[in-house]
Amino acid sequence: MAAKSRQSSAPGAAKPRSDAYVGLLTVSLLAQLAGAAFLYMDYSQYEGTKDPIAIARDLKTKAGTTAAPAPPGAPPPGAAVGAPPPGAMDGKKVP
Which residue blocks in the chain are alpha helix, DSSP H? Predict the structure, then answer.
């Protein structure tokens, strides 16, 4: 149930005027609508294009090969960065 207003509800009473907050709400609504329009225009540019990650994945599977072999002295693929080379912790001296 709505609370009664302080003003009388007489038929000849003037309606309350909009204040600054109604203007701010209107400006924010227009900004939201403009943002949605710009988002749509930006999104519509990508129609018909393919995701770069999907392109790279397709090229990798079409080639049927894995990554190029590592150069001599490089850690094997998947090794932790900064980890000691294989065999360094066995007690043997590594050159």
Answer: 20-44, 52-63
